[in-house]
Amino acid sequence: MTEPQNPQADAPDDQALMSFWEHVEELRKRLLIALLALGLATAFSFFFADKVIYLLAEPVGSIDALQSIEVTENISVFMRVALLCGVSISMPVILYEILAFILPALKRSEKRWVYLTIVFGTLFFLAGAAFAYYVMLPSSLQFLIDFLAVETKPRLSSYINFITSLIFWMGVGFQFPLVIFALAKMDVVSAEALAKGWRYGVVVISVLAAMITPTVDPVNMALLMSPLLVLYVISIFFAYLANGKDKHKEVKEDENS
After folding, report:
1. HEC letters along 129-140
2. SS3 of 68, please?
3. Looking at the DSSP assignment, which residues form a beta bridge with residue 67?
4. What is the helix (H) or strand (E) element at residue 214, kind and residue range?
5. Which of 88, 96, 12, 3 has its CA nearest to residue 44?
6. What DSSP state is assigned to residue 213?
7. pLDDT tens digits, residue range 1-19?
8. Which contiguous run of DSSP H or E holds residue 175?
9. Which of 12, 76, 212, 221 shows a CA-CA span of 20 to 30 A to 129?
């Protein structure tokens, strides 16, 4: 005799039955909260953005190694750095609001993964930013500035745009395991498929490294490829966490039936 099942145990919340316009309103509310958090974090960053600019200038020597040409250049650089700091500070809130929008489509037993995703997403973003600053930038700048042995004094806005873009996109690139985790949850990919297709993964990572790296030399490409390959292995583990256990359980049930 089979035990009665609880239909509410793994059923989606009532919010899953929202109409189209209710979904639009929910999305608007989530985006508004995320933008508000970003705005407040950016405003808070005004208090220390100048110190961050001095810190970002360290890989090139110091702030004295840079020059400003236009009248509005200094304030535009200040705002750009403040915005980057605001994104970093508000990252947990932004991730939560994005994930909270899809919460009604998840089962109650799956929602615990959302909160873990917020923690790991923030940590991965900061890890990518730290890798770009402490590992990639020193070697990349050394190669670019010393190329052709011509004396180079970088422009402030050009240098800050270059360094903040690299830091931001490396932080985003380090979100790769979480993207794989989400795709595995939707049964788009699996840990087994990722493990078997590692050769294709290496090719894709090589292409991405060639597109993202600020220089064309193989040393910097290798510096970028190394963490991406590690992230690929971590992605396989995340994909297993997403659907591996469930599929293993299904296989056992099929064998016993």
Report:
1. HHHHHHHHHHHH
2. coil
3. 155
4. none
5. 88
6. -
7. 444 555 554 544 444 455 7
8. none
9. 76
The residue behind tokens 């702030």 is: 63
Positive or negative, the CA dihedral 99, 42, 77, 163 is: negative
Q: How far apart are CA 136 and CA 224, in angstroms?
A: 7
Nearest to 136 by CA among 70, 222, 220: 220
Residues 184 and 110 sit within 8 Å (Cβ to Cβ): no
**Share of the chain residues as helix, strand and coil, in percent rounded to the nearest 5:** 80, 0, 20
Read off the tokens for 139: 């070697």
What global pTM score does this model have? 0.71
Backbone angles phi, psi at 107, to 5 degrees: -75, 160
- DSSP string over 46-97: TTTHHHHHHHHTGGGS-GGG-B--STTHHHHHHHHHHHHHHHHHHHHHHHHH
Using CA atoms, how far apart are residues 89 and 45, in angstroms rounded to an integer?
9
3-state secondary structure (DSSP) of residue 18: coil
Question: How many residues are present in the chain?
Answer: 257
Residue 223 tokens read as 């510096």
How far, in Å, CA of 10 to CA of 25, rounded? Answer: 26
User: Which positions ≥6 away from 176 have C-beta within 8 Å?
Assistant: 228, 231, 232, 235
| Cβ-contact 9, 108 below 8 angstroms | yes
Residue with the two structure tokens 């309103």: 25
DSSP class of residue 92 equals H
